[in-house]
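Sample 3 of the quickstart, ligand F7E:
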Amino acid sequence: MDKNSKIYIAGHRGLVGSAILKNLESKGYNNFVTRTHKELDLTDKNAVANFFSIEKPDYVFLAAAKVGGIVANNTYRADFIYENLSIQNNVIHQSFLSGVKKLMFLGSTCIYPKNCPQPMKEDYLLTGILEYTNEPYAIAKIAGIKMCESYNLQYGTNFISVMPTNLYGPNDNFDLEKSHVLPALIRKMYLGKALENNKWDTICKDLNKMPIEGVDGKSSKDSILNILKKYGISKVNDKIQLEVWGTGNPMREFLWSEDMADACVFLMQNRDFKDCIGFNTKEIRNTHINIGTGIDISIKDLAFLIKKIITFNGELYFNKSKPDGTMKKLTDPSKLHELGWKHKIDLENGIKKVYEWYQNM
Ligand SMILES: NC(=O)C1=CN([C@@H]2O[C@H](COP(=O)(O)OP(=O)(O)OC[C@H]3O[C@@H](n4cnc5c(N)ncnc54)[C@H](OP(=O)(O)O)[C@@H]3O)[C@@H](O)[C@H]2O)C=CC1
Ligand SMILES: C[C@H]1O[C@H](OP(=O)(O)OP(=O)(O)OC[C@H]2O[C@@H](n3cnc4c(=O)[nH]c(N)nc43)[C@H](O)[C@@H]2O)[C@@H](O)[C@@H](O)C1=O
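Result:
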């Protein structure tokens, strides 16, 4: 990529897309094409074709997707498979038709089997059944990998795929139901701490920024208390009780979004599809690359770590009626390490940084 190459970042306002844009800007790239969801619905085939024929980007980072945590994936199953297949079909196919020099497709480590040997190597793809809670999303992501591989093999394109572990950072989704665990627990404990200290102005400010089911900072105290209770934050005899979903036993690996973005830019600069040829001498497959830290933590320990960082004094309880999902999904990032990239921000520092960002948002 030259500094003035035309780069399209699909999903540039999201957790990863915003970090990719920031990373590229910091490295001197200066010719970006961006569209919000409202300006260009990537599920609309004609609109995407029109966009590519006008803009003709040289490079594409495909970081736009329908994304959510375990409950969102499990509830909106049709939307997750339909929207993700449509977005990636349209963007990958139009990138081929308009002669994009290189495209990066972002998948997810949920592509690996539910009971995958740990840590998970790239070659474990399609070796077992998937985790049920996010099967539709995972199937779409697997289709994306295979689509990139297939276009490369049939048409000689240079489309690469990366499989990131669970990510977190600025511009994440902090919805109390649809988000991932780390932003959800940060917001729950932030609100729990404010409730603990009777800081109504803090609670109202938060709800004005992100109303929950029609309740905002101007709503009555009772409606606010009811909605917080519904999402597992309640005051019982002056003590705050805070719900954590599932048993707390699942293990998860977390990567700071700006490290993720740095890995994406590094691979875009240093890795081509042709470099994958020879991984398997008989058939070319599993050409994607894991992006992770290789370190995981239980949800219980994560919850207590966030509690400590936020200095929230309430009680945590584990709601076993909520799904655990996969019990362990730790990446093996050795392929990425061999190429010369390693993450920089550890979990504790990352949580401190994102908590600070959240408070000043
Ligand atoms: N977050 C995580 O933990 C993980 C994420 N990933 C993958 O990384 C990628 C980025 O995820 P993340 O940044 O977290 O997601 P976000 O939800 O933060 O951002 C998604 C972006 O996609 C855009 N978008 C969604 N639907 C459409 C659409 N129909 N048309 C146009 N734009 C659309 C949104 O646009 P707008 O802002 O305008 O609404 C938004 O900018 C995804 O492929 C995801 O699957 C993989 C593993 C873990
Ligand atoms: C990135 C990845 O994200 C999704 O998979 P997931 O890792 O299971 O997602 P999660 O972050 O929502 O949950 C992780 C764990 O944490 C527990 N948990 C506790 N308390 C809360 C809580 O308050 N909210 C949430 N969301 N989870 C909680 C929760 O019960 C689970 O055991 C995929 O669907 C798929 O999209 C994907 O690729």
